[in-house]
Write a structure and sequence with these properties.
Number of strands: 5
CATH architecture: 3-Layer(aba) Sandwich
Largest sheet: 5 strands, mixed
Distance between the termini: 32 Å
Radius of gyration: 16 Å
Strand order of the largest sheet: 3-2-4-1-5
Strand content: 15-25%
Number of helices: 5
Order of helices and strands: HEHEHHEHEE
CATH class: Alpha Beta
CATH superfamily: Periplasmic binding protein-like II
Low-confidence stretches: 4-17
């Protein structure tokens, strides 16, 4: 156990365990320009389907558990288990459904087709898309 802790500390200190920068994006032709963390929370938690300016938004998740876990922890300080529990309660009470999950390529294609669609990606994959929020 002690060697595991030492190894983890060494990884953290060396920068090898450094988190990648995630961005929330929309298509290049989208009317969306910027989203606050509060707006993102309302959208991703199913509390709203539009921005403060009245733009209708469709939210997408990545199908990668690694990216989803990193996004929810970084954006909302929630583990993936906590988010799944929240969404299960929403579905059970009829208050909402979780966002559809897409692969990276499918998400990028959807964002380019639908100006009201948003999703998150590592910044290095966001070329040609509108960055709405950086984490």
């Amino acid at each position: 156990m002690r060697s595991l802790v030492i190894t983890l500390i060494a990884l953290l200190m060396s920068g090898m365990a450094q988190a990648r920068e995630l961005v929330v994006v929309s298509g290049a032709d989208s009317a969306l320009v910027q989203l606050s963390r509060e707006e993102l929370q309302k959208l991703y938690f199913g509390q709203s389907s539009a921005t403060a300016e009245g733009h209708s938004v469709v939210v997408y998740d990545l199908d990668s558990t690694e990216y989803r876990a990193e996004f929810y922890l970084t954006a909302f300080s929630m583990s993936l288990i906590q988010m799944r529990a929240y969404r299960a309660k929403q579905v059970f009470t009829g208050r909402g459904r979780p966002p559809r999950q897409l692969g990276v390529d499918d998400l990028i294609a959807r964002l380019q087709q639908d100006g009201g669609a948003i999703g998150y990606l590592p910044v290095e994959l966001a070329e040609g898309l509108t960055i709405l929020h950086r984490f």
